[in-house]
Each structure stands twice: as structure tokens, then as C-alpha cells.
Amino acid sequence: MNHRLLILGTLGEFVQLVQKAKQRGYYTIVCDGYPDGEARAYADASYVLPVTDTDAIAELCKKERVDGIITSFSDLLMECMVKIAAKADLPCYLKPEQIPWYRDKSVCRQTLSKLGLPTPGYVKIPVSLSCEPDKIKQLVHSLSYPLISKPMDKYGSRGIYIIHDESELAEQVIRTAEFTDLGEVLVEEYNDGFEFNMMTWVADGEVNVISIADREKTQPEADMLPISTRNVYPSRLLSYVYEPARNLLQSYIAHTGQMDGPLSMQFFWKPGKGIQVCEIAARFFGYEHELTDMVYGFNIEELLLAGVYQKEKISEMFAGHDVFHPLHHGAVVYFHGKLRKIADQTKAYELAGNEAVVKPWIFYKTGETVVEYGPNPYLALYYMETESREKLDEVTGYFFDKMSMTDPDGQEIAYRNQIPDYFITEE
Questions:
Q1: pLDDT at residue 134 greater than cutoff 50
Q2: Tens digit of pLDDT for each residue in 281-325?
């Protein structure tokens, strides 16, 4: 049968998914609101529609006789796909009523607390109280500083601010309130432990671990939230966190009812204190899933396609996968920057030629201005592969030292990154 597949998303991350779908003989249709999306050039058909217009895209599915729908890499895309699938009567690993467990941060927190699973202490602050600092202080009195304020309906670190002490509380809640369309914002305790990205696949209600990575962050300026600067596969601390993290996700989906599909988690771990959940999502991480192919030879695009049309292949993929025995060590290195016009990217392109770089990604053209939110999430990123973690750290340190982009006045745009200290002591 010549399947007709709708892929929700056209940016660069979807190119390989479109290519692999076409290699299997599927008629491939792509759709989102970006008219210049790179994946459009590889698809059989292409439509420009906002992903949030789920009614229109559901009608498109019927018109194009679509028999499968797929997406990943962002919470918004996942949510829209689930709604479209329900309206177009297409198979999907989630139903609309399950979305809040993976999309609404407060519902996730409430569920974790109900199940007795570790999560930061939190409260919800009504937006209507954003100008009443005394009432806000009363609501958070049981929490321990530092705190973080965040919207419950956004993604991509939008509107998230760190709160060091009581004097900053009201100001940061007000800033977060500007980013939400809901009546409340979330304020939770900030965990400064080691951070991890975990990707799994649920098959017949069983959590299968694909990877656990060290999610490293750098605080570039004193008043800024730490930003993601390197994700490393496999985690240096894999043996400490594998079992408790997997068991936690197994307990979570036993409650949500998820039986199939992607499942990811960001979490913290401290020696002697165990793990604590940050986020749980029913999709894979953007600009990172490529690492599983580099490090393990485990291809996420093939898994996503199997989840739609070849579920019998999934058990075969995991039978040959061992998260504790990588073929290589790998990382994706991110560079963030100030909101200025780019005049010189020479050094960024020189680094792209380093022998450890598998794939460079320079997001802006010379002469463009860096924007805070848009299709370009970073100045640049580099996928790296080496034979050992030690070599990977050495190469990363060189990149962190040499990376540079400057504005027309010769001022540095790129923030400086740091590798964290992994020395730990048991408590």
C-alpha cells in the first residue's frame, strides 16, 4: 500500500524524516506556517498553514486521503498533531484528553505529587495578583529559594525567570505573566543539581530507554537564567540515574494511560538526594535526537515512522540497543548570543571544519540580526563525535574558548560557555 503521510513541521529538523519516509515509498505531505521551511523541498506536497489551525489541517488530511500523521521535537507540534488526528480520525499514540499531562506544567506537577513522585515544590500564582506583592509572598511562603517563575502554556524557555530572594519575587512573576495566555503562572523551587535529558519509547505500556544525556548549562550573565550549552551522550552519571528515572516514567504513564509513542523527561539528580522531575513530554527533544544515531546507531526518524506504520519493527530496534554501551561519545554544543546584528562569523565557520564535527548548523546569515524568539533558536550548534568522553571535553573546551561572532562595532555577540564540574561526593 502506498501510504500517504502528513508530517507536521517543515524546518530543518524534519528533512531527514521526510527523506526516510520517501525512501519507504510513502507519499509525503508537509505542513506548518513557515513558507521557507527546508523540508518542503523534499516532500511530495507542501502546505502553508499555522499548526494551530487544527480544523483546517484536519480537512487537509481528509482531502489528501492521509492515513498517518507524525511530528516531534516541540510540545506545540505534539499538541496540535494529537488534536488533528482526533478530528481527522487518524491513529495517534495520544488522545486530546491526555494532552494536559504532558503540556500543562501544573497538571504534571499535581500528578507527580499525587503519585508520590519527586518534583520541586510549587505554587500557582493568579495573574490578577501580579501587582500585589504581599499576597504573592504569602502564597510562596512554604517554598525554599531560589525559585523559578514560568508560564504553564509556553515552550522554548519563554518567560522563565530565576528568583534569588523575596525582593525579586513580584518583579519576576510580573515578567512571566506577560508571556502567558492563562490566568495563572507557576512558581517552583529551583534545583541546582546535575541536569539530564532522557528519551524513551513506550511500546505496549512499557518504557524503553533510548538515551540519557548530561544537560549542561551556563549562566552567561548574573541576572540571566542559565542557558543550555551542551548535551552529552551518554551521561557521565548514567549508572546513578537509569533505574530510578525509568521507574518514575513507568509509574507516570501507568496513570496517564499512554501505551505507545515517544516519551521524554528532563530531570535533576543530586548525590544523596535522588532525582527530581523538571518536565515530562510526549515527544523527542529538538536539535538533539540526532545524537542517538551518532552515539548508538539508533535512528529516531526510523522509530517515529515505525510507530505509525511498522510497529512490529520497534521490538527489533530495541533488541539491538544497549544504552550502556555506546559506539561513540557525542555532544551537541549550543551557542546563544546577544540581540545584535551579525557582521563577522568567520570563527564560527572555521570551527565547523574541526574533525570532531559531524554536522555544523550556523543559523543566521551575516548581516542578519539575532532575534529572541523565532525559527532560529541559537547562533550556531555543532554535533560532535569522539572516541571518548575525555576527548569530547577537550574539543568542547577548545570550541568554548574560540567561538566568536561580532557585530558591526567589533563587539562580541556570542555568550561564553562553560563545562561544569562533575566531581561528586556521596552524602
A1: yes
A2: 999 998 889 999 999 999 999 999 999 999 999 999 999 999 999
For the domain with range 121-189, which CATH number is right: 3.30.230.70, 3.30.1490.20, 2.60.120.1440, 3.30.1140.32?
3.30.1490.20
Q: How far is it, in rounded angstroms, from Cα 140 to Cα 151?
A: 16
Q: How far apart are CA 426 and CA 424, in angstroms?
A: 7
| Contact by Cβ (8 Å): 149, 160 | yes
Taking the CA atoms of 354, 356, 360 and 362 in sequence, report the sign of the dihedral they define.
negative
Task: For domain 4-92, give the fold.
Answer: Rossmann fold (3.40.50)
Ranges of H-type helices in 8-114 = 15-23, 54-63, 75-88, 100-103, 105-114
Predicted structure pTM score: 0.87
Angle at 112 between CA 111 and CA 115, to 5 degrees: 85
The per-residue pLDDT for range 175-198, each reduced to its tens digit, is 888 888 888 888 988 888 899 999
Cβ-contact 330, 384 below 8 angstroms: yes
How far is Cα 412 from Cα 143, in angstroms, rounded to an integer? 38
